[in-house]
Specification:
Pfam family, one: ArfGap
Number of helices: 33
Distance between the termini: 128 Å
Shape: elongated
Largest sheet: 14 strands, antiparallel
CATH architecture of the largest domain: Roll
Subcellular location: Cytoplasm
CATH topology of the largest domain: PH-domain like
CATH superfamily of the largest domain: Pleckstrin-homology domain (PH domain)/Phosphotyrosine-binding domain (PTB)
Main location: cytoplasm
Strand content: 15-25%
Organism: Anolis carolinensis
GO molecular function: GTPase activator activity; phosphatidylinositol-3,4,5-trisphosphate binding; zinc ion binding
Length: 1146
């Protein structure tokens, strides 16, 4: 019984008869076989009445048929040779002629069609499903392929590739029946094929594929046969595949099954896809005639298909591509630049039989519903009807709602034309778990998933009970998707799974055993809801993708929307207003914390702080967990640890900083062993999240921390050094040895190289204190050699390498003098701090990350800064301003203030003041804030016009009786003060000769402001703290009558404490890199001296011996003179005159 290549068309049998076939077992053993030849296959059977062959050979794979004598002939394919023997020479010759003619006819047919048909392994163009299956009656598994309306059986995958199989089953007579857990039967009237799959999932997939094949085989072929009657319709208009069984009814093209899926993705407004076999009612006589129009097909092939061809990006045509189009089509592009000429031409074309011209005009942008200007026939449809052009009417009807390509108007053919493609489409079976309102913390078993047909189209993701269901079980719009998660392999019962989070606080979980299938689903869904500006995120192999609200930069008032993708330990972001994606290296964050009630995730980088807000709790909690996991250590290699901005593991950095500040003088450092339990516990905490660990003196012992550092290096997986270092240590030439060490150092991975430098730098410091800790270079090498090389200590070369690196640290690591000087200053500062803070015992070690606020204390203005021992207040200010990208203008005096909330006072730090000692002395009610010092300009002008470096006058005074703030003295009293470069003196009244109190200026700290509890008589006051060498402390308050007096006193305090330099007179190195010099800095205008004569002494004679008398007289004279002189650009000369008089006075 002969079958058809497609249901409804029988293949004619060219020749049939008995032949002896030579089997593979031996060349002299022949077996009698019934052989059939048709245009597609050469098949042989056991008997004449058998339906299913023992072997089939595709004629597409036959290359030659030759005679070998004695009634024998060979059929030669690309990979195998089949030998047959006929009953006579005449019969043999008939078979040879028939085979040769069939081969030639097939080759000619393929060449005429320009087919992409494969010679081997290609008896069908597209395989719906293939793979191994057990078949009852066969010892080993067969390779089964479902293709179109047939099921093919092969011995193995290799024969499947070659295209030489056992038999094929026509599915128009088949039926699939579920038998048991993994078994199913394919039943035909002639035989039952009992298959057994490996898993339940595989069985369901095979059953579904075979049922689809049956549906295709039972479909009607009448329409397809009529459409195929046109030669041009026998190949897919897109890819050239033979026998296409789908069509686009508005484009009038036939396409294969694979291309039909792509056309569906373009949307019905561009391509309306229908089946030639299953949508018989759609294909009217007029539509079939339209599809068979030769001119239409020609126009489609030269114009329409290039326009709507599916791609992943915008299509651009160059001049060369335009030259290849049909001449008539190019004429429309060149001539009809505006819409009206194209519409007029369309109205004229629809009255003729030239469908190609109508189609070309439509795809040049003419509108189907345009106005014709004729009241009787107002549009092209009416014109075609009046002219009796049924095919024109059918074509216009099918394109009534089509979106024609919007071609850019141009004056030259050299302009590029672009067509933007619509939304993404995808479909297939997925296994879906019930939707959830909380995060998935437990593994979901396979039994909790249900098989669903899922469809992504026109911005809607729908899932159905089966692929034949018409009503979806549920759907979600892609605009509602806020996050997409691609889970790790085997996170749940299925091999691969992904999660979808929507705005309604629901989570959808889908899975498959096919990782590539899940990856394709994730990519399509991501592309459907991701904006074009952020499509660059799709280039990353992300595990989580979505949109989040964030705050950052200069404006922290309004939350903005950003798109984020998490890949391993890097968070990629497209932020509002940004032209390109930004990468945040999570393991290098200085701080990662959650503020509020799990509402804000704070990511602190070196120069930026990003606040990610949780608009939707479910989605936000998932992001928090994922980012925290990615920001932590994930393995035992150096590159998998949390890192500093210099690529040094935070564990190493924490331990080195602590030992540097607390243990450089500890005897036997690194030689003594700490407590094993404390070392193990500390290392576990550091490995878990070293960023949160703060090593404090008193809580952690130096030897425990040192032992932790050694154990970390011994346990790391990749090690710091290779054996080449050991060989280098044996070199005798010192220069050659150092040169070799440098090459080896440069050859290390970045993290290893940075870690080696940090460690050797630390050991170099340690040996500098060898007279105190007894750990010289040799002793350190003995300890660290086996540790860093992870040996048992028997090889002395390991210690020699470490000793060489410490001894030649400056040369090997190319350390310059400036770097060495800074290191020495840092060590000196740390030792001084330890001496100063030894009595309090509150000194903290570690990375010294402190919180500094910008302008005011708010959560949004927090900045987390790493403060080294050498950082000055000026450097801290510029660090904050750089992070927030604030440019300092000419008259902006940004300063760092120490704010004491309990005393309701603040103190601007001097620009050269070290920040670290201040951090150690801050109480729980104090903090640092960077803001503009509004009074600095006035103070600079005052000091520029001031004579001498002292000041005197009346202020209201009140003393604090004790440090607890209890038992305040009774009210404020007028007192007379004299301030000079040495001390501050307090007199009971102006005429007093002996001061009641006297304080050295260097021991004073002046804060602006007085707490309300002290009931100050004015709002212009100071809070003064005094502490002497005996740690005796005092506190009092001073009040002025005016703001100008306050600024004058405060300016003088700063001036005498810092040698007259309260603000950099010229730009520092840091400032020079950020602002330009201003030529007017030397032309500061003078202001008149402000003063109340009633506050002056009543009798100058009583103080003739006081040099202040002379200064006061000069001040009064100059004040009167300056007040009468307007401020001019020549004020610098006045200032020089003041300086000259000041010199004469002194």
């Amino acid at each position: 019984m002969d079958r058809a290549t497609s249901s409804g068309q029988l293949l004619p049998v060219i020749k049939a008869g008995w032949l002896d076939k030579n089997p593979p077992q031996g060349s002299y053993i022949y077996q009698k076989r019934w052989v059939k030849l048709d245009p597609d296959y050469l098949r042989y059977f056991d008997g004449e009445k058998d339906i299913y062959s023992k072997r089939f050979i595709p004629m597409s794979s036959v290359t030659r048929v030759t005679s070998i004598g004695d009634q024998k002939f060979e059929v030669i394919t690309n990979n195998r040779t089949f030998a047959f023997r006929a009953e006579s020479d005449a019969d043999r010759n008939d078979w040879i002629r028939a085979l040769q003619k069939t081969v030639e006819d097939r080759k000619g047919r393929c060449l005429d069609r320009g087919s992409v048909f494969h010679a081997s392994g290609g008896s069908f163009e597209a395989v719906d499903k293939c793979g191994p299956l057990e078949l009852r009656g066969y010892k080993s598994k067969l390779y089964v392929a479902v293709a179109g309306d047939k099921v093919f059986l092969y011995k193995n995958a290799e024969e499947f590739r070659l295209g030489i199989g056992i038999t094929y089953i026509e599915m128009n007579v088949g039926n699939v029946k579920d038998v048991d857990r993994r078994g199913f039967d394919l039943t035909t009237p002639y035989r039952i094929f009992s298959f057994l799959a490996d898993t339940d999932q595989e069985k369901e997939d095979w059953v579904e594929a075979m049922r689809q094949s049956i549906s295709e085989a039972l479909s009607h072929s009448e329409v397809a046969e009529r459409i195929w009657s046109a030669e041009a319709n026998r190949l897919c208009a897109d890819c050239g595949a033979p026998n296409p069984d789908w069509g686009s009814i508005n484009l009038c093209v036939v396409i294969c099954k694979r291309c039909a899926g792509e056309h569906r993705g373009l949307g019905p407004s561009i391509s309306k896809v229908r089946s030639l076999k299953m949508d018989k009612k759609v294909w009217t006589e007029d539509l079939i005639s339209l599809g068979n129009g030769g001119n239409t097909i020609k126009a489609i092939n030269t114009w329409a298909i290039p326009v709507i061809r599916y791609t992943t990006s915008i299509i651009n045509w160059t001049q060369m591509e335009l030259d290849n189009l049909d001449r008539k089509t190019r004429k429309f592009i060149a001539i009809h630049h505006s819409l009206h000429p194209r519409c007029d031409a369309l109205c004229a074309a629809v009255t003729t039989t030239d469908l190609a011209e109508t189609l070309s005009l439509l795809f040049c942008g003419a509108e189907v519903s345009c106005s014709s200007g004729d009241p009787v026939c107002p549009n092209p449809m009416a014109l075609a009807e009046a002219a009796g052009q049924r095919l024109q009417m059918e074509f216009l009807l099918q394109n009534k709602t089509s979106e024609t390509p919007q071609l850019d108007v141009c004056t030259s053919l050299e302009k590029h034309y672009s067509v933007v493609l619509p939304s993404v489409a995808h479909n297939g079976f997925l296994y879906k778990a019930p939707s959830m309102a909380k995060l998935v913390h437990e593994r979901k078993a396979r039994e909790e998933f249900s098989r669903r047909w899922c469809h992504l189209h026109d911005g809607i993701f729908s899932y159905y009970e089966s692929n034949t269901s018409t009503v979806p079980n549920g759907e979600m719009r892609v605009q509602e998707i806020v996050s997409l998660v691609h889970n790790p392999i085997d996170a749940h019962g299925f091999t691969s799974t992904f999660e979808v989070y929507v705005e309604s606080e629901r989570l959808y979980l889908f899975g498959l055993d096919n990782p590539e299938g899940i990856k394709e689903w994730v990519k399509c869904i991501a592309k459907s809801f991701l904006p074009l500006a952020a499509e660059g995120l799709l280039s990353h192999d992300f595990e989580r993708l979505g949109r989040l609200q964030y705050k950052g930069g200069l404006n922290l008032e309004r939350a903005k929307e950003g798109w984020f993708a998490l890949e391993q330990s890097t968070l990629y972001a497209y932020l509002e207003g940004s032209e390109k994606e930004e990468a945040i290296h999570l393991r290098k964050l200085q701080e990662l914390s959650i503020q509020g009630d799990n509402e804000v995730l704070v990511l602190v980088e070196r120069r930026r702080t990003l606040y990610i807000q949780g608009e939707r709790k479910l989605d936000f909690l998932g992001w928090v967990a994922a980012i925290q996991k990615a920001a932590g250590s994930s393995g035992d290699t150096l590159s998998e640890q949390q890192l500093t901005d210099t690529d040094v593991p935070v564990i190493v950095d924490r331990c080195i900083d602590y030992i540097t500040q607390c243990g450089l003088s500890s005897e036997g450092l690194y030689r003594k062993s700490g407590q094993n339990s404390k070392t193990t516990g500390l290392l576990e905490v550091l490995r878990r999240d070293a960023r949160k660990v703060r090593l404090k003196e008193g809580e952690h012992q130096v030897d425990d921390v040192a032992n932790t550092l050694k154990r970390f290096f011994r346990d790391i997986g990749d090690g710091l050094f290779t054996k080449d270092w050991l060989v280098t240590s044996s070199l005798e030439d010192e220069k050659e040895k150092i040169s070799r060490y440098r090459r080896l150092l440069n050859g290390l991975p970045g993290v290893n190289r940075a870690t080696v430098k940090a460690l050797i730098n630390h050991l170099y410091r340690v040996q500098c204190f060898a007279d105190m800790n007894q750990m010289n270079t040799h002793n350190l090498a003995i300890v660290f050699g086996p540790t860093l090389f992870q040996t048992d200590g028997q090889d002395y070369k390991a210690g020699r390498v470490v000793e060489d690196l410490i001894r030649c640290y400056v040369d090997i690591f190319s350390v310059d003098e400036e770097e060495m000087r800074k290191q020495q200053e840092e060590i000196t500062a740390i030792m001084k701090m330890r001496i100063a803070g030894s009595s309090s015992g509150t000194q903290q070690a570690g990375d010294f990350i402190c919180t500094v606020y910008l302008e005011e204390k708010k959560t949004e203005t927090e900045q987390h800064i790493r403060v080294p021992a050498t950082m000055t207040a000026e450097e801290l200010v510029f660090e904050i301003l750089d992070r927030r990208k604030i440019v300092m203008k000419e008259k902006d005096f940004w300063s760092c203030f120490e704010v004491n909330e309990r005393e309701e006072a603040e103190r601007p730090l001097h620009y050269s003041e070290k920040v670290l000692p201040i951090l150690h002395s801050l109480g729980k009610d104090s903090y640092l804030v960077v803001k503009r010092q509004l009074s600095m300009d006035s103070m600079l002008l005052y000091l520029a016009s001031k004579v001498g470096d002292s000041k005197h006058g009346m202020m209201k005074f009140r003393e604090e009786k004790n440090l607890l703030g209890l038992g305040l003295s009774t009210g404020f009293h007028d007192r007379y003060f004299i301030l000079n470069s040495e001390c501050l003196r307090l007199y009971k009244e102006v005429r007093s000769h002996k001061p009641e109190k006297e304080w050295p200026v260097k021991n004073l700290k002046i804060y602006l402001g007085i707490k309300k509890k002290a009931r100050p008589p004015s709002c212009w006051g100071f809070t003064v703290f005094f502490e002497n060498e005996k740690m005796e402390k005092q506190q009092w308050y001073l009040c002025c009558d005016t703001q100008m007096e306050l600024r004058a006193w405060f300016a003088t305090f700063l001036s005498v404490q810092h040698g007259g330099n309260i603000w950099p007179s010229e730009s520092s190195k840091i400032r020079a890199s950020r602002i330009q010099q201003d030529s007017r800095l030397g032309n500061i205008s003078l202001i008149p001296l402000r003063g109340n004569e009633s506050e002056m002494r009543n009798s100058v004679a009583a103080f003739t011996t006081d040099p202040l008398t002379v200064r006061l007289g000069l001040r009064q004279q100059r004040a009167c003179r300056v007040e009468q002189t307007p401020l001019t650009r020549h004020s610098s000369h006045t200032q020089a005159h003041v300086c000259e008089r000041r010199g004469n006075t002194v």
